[in-house]
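User: C-alpha cells in, sequence out, please.
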C-alpha cells in the first residue's frame, strides 16, 4: 500500500524527545525521510535517530540552536546537501521560563521569545527558498492553547505562541501562490518532560479543567502533524488546529 509521505523529506526541530520525537517517528512510519535538530548531539538524540530508522526511514540528526539565525541557515543548507530537498518543516523546538510578569526578567522574556518564536522565523526564512523552487511545501509550527487565551505566569510563553499563529497566517498568505502551506497546532496539555516539570497540584488542576479528563499523548499531537504534513490537508493553510480534549 502507498504510504502518505513516500519520497518526502521532513525537517523537525527539537526532536530529541517529546512531541518532536513523536512527530519524527509518525512521519517516518508513512515513508518520510527525517532530518531533525536539537541543541547537542547526545545519547538521547542518537536513541531518537535509531528509533526513527527502525521505522524503516533514513534519519540524520543535526546540532543547532534554533534561536540562532546563522546557525539555522547552515543547518538547512546541510540538510539540503544531504537529502536534496525539504518538503515538510516542523517548527517544534520550544522552552518555558514561567513566572509572574512582574517577576519576569528581561533574560527570561528574551530567551523564550527567541527559542519559541524567532526560531520559527529563522527556519521559515531558511527553508522557503528551497520550497519555492520545488513549488511545494508544508510548514507546521507548534503553538499552544495559551497563545490563544493567555495564561497567568506565562507572559513570555503565551506571547511567543500567539506570535506563532500570526507568523503562520502571514506565511500562508505570502507563500500560498508558490504552493507552500503553513499551519499551526495548538495543543492544550501534553504529557511530556516539559509538563512533567510542573508541580503535581498544577497538573491535577489542568486535568480537572479538561473535559476529556486527561492530557494528550505526544502521539495524538503527531497524528495531527501527519495530517498537516501530507496531501490529506492539501487545501488547508493558514490554520491553527486546537488539540485540547475540548479544553
Ligand atoms: P520538550 O521540552 O520535551 O522538548 C523540547 C525539545 O526542544 C528538547 O529536545 C529540547 O532540547 C529542544 N530544544 C530546546 N531549545 C532548543 C533550541 N534552542 N534549539 C533546538 N532545540 C531546542 O517539550 P515538548 O513538550 O515536547 O514540546 C514541544 C513543543 O510543543 C514546544 O514548542 C512546546 O512549547 C509545544 N507545546 C507543548 C505542550 C505540552 O503540554 N507539552 C503544550 C503546547 C505546546
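Assistant: Sequence out:
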Amino acid at each position: 500500500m502507498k504510504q502518505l509521505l513516500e519520497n518526502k523529506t521532513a525537517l523537525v526541530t527539537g526532536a530529541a524527545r517529546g512531541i518532536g520525537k513523536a512527530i519524527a517517528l509518525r512521519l517516518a512510519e508513512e515513508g518520510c525521510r527525517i532530518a531533525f535538530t536539537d541543541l547537542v548531539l547526545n545519547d538521547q538524540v542518537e536513541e531518537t535517530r535509531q528509533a526513527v530508522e527502525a521505522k524503516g526511514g533514513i534519519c540524520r540528526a543535526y546540532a543547532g540552536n534554533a534561536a540562532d539565525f546563522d546557525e539555522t541557515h547552515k543547518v538547512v543548507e546541510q540538510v539540503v546537501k544531504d537529502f536534496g530537498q525539504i518538503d515538510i518543516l516542523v517548527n517544534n523546538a520550544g522552552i518555558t521560563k514561567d513566572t509572574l510578569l512582574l517577576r519576569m526578567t528581561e533574560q527570561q522574556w528574551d530567551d523564550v521569545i527567541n527559542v519559541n518564536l524567532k526560531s520559527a522565523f529563522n527556519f521559515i526564512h531558511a527553508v522557503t527558498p528551497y520550497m519555492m523552487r520545488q513549488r511545494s511545501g508544508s510548514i507546521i509550527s507548534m503553538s499552544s492553547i495559551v497563545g490563544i487565551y493567555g495564561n497567568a505566569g506565562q507572559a513570555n510563553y503565551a506571547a511567543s505562541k500567539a506570535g506563532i499563529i500570526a507568523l503562520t497566517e502571514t506565511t500562508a498568505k505570502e507563500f500560498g501562490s508558490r504552493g507552500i502551506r503553513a499551519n499551526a497546532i495548538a495543543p492544550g496539555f501534553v504529557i511530556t518532560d516539559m509538563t512533567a516539570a510542573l508541580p503535581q497540584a498544577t497538573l491535577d488542576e489542568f486535568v480537572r479543567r479538561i473535559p476529556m479528563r486527561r492530557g494528550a499523548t505526544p502521539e495524538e499531537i503527531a497524528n495531527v502533524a501527519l495530517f498537516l504534513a501530507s496531501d490529506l490537508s492539501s487545501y488547508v493553510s493558514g490554520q491553527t488546529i486546537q488539540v485540547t480534549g475540548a479544553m
